Amino acid sequence: MTFQNEQHPHLSRRALQKQQNAENTELLRNITRARLELEAANQNFSDATDPLLVDLYAYQIKASQAKYAYLLKKARIKGLTQIEYIKKAF
């Protein structure tokens, strides 16, 4: 019996689950990267003395916050939890 999905009508249930797992793992990795980018931007902002660099890092912080919030929202919509994160990311 083949499972038909509106997004991927050509995939079997097992293949669809495998694809979703891969997408979820990638999302969790992107969340980790985004968090690290935000931490780095905050540290660089704290260390900056040149006014131009202060401005640059302020913009980087804002962009990193938006990216991180977007990815967290995407994970929440998919129903991913911290436990899923721990299992898949490490």
Explain how this protein is built:
The protein is mainly α. 79% of the residues lie in helices and 0% in strands. It has helices spanning 13-47, 51-78, 82-89. The radius of gyration is 18 Å and the shape is elongated. The model has no long low-confidence stretch (mean pLDDT 85).
What is the oligomer described by this structure? single chain
Shape: elongated
State the separation between the terminal residues, measured CA to CA: 34 Å
Radius of gyration: 18 Å
Give the key terms.
mainly alpha, 79% helix
Gist?
The protein has 90 residues and is mainly α. Helix content is 79%, strand content 0%.
Topology:
Blueprint (H helix, E strand, L loop, with lengths): L12 H35 L3 H28 L3 H8 L1
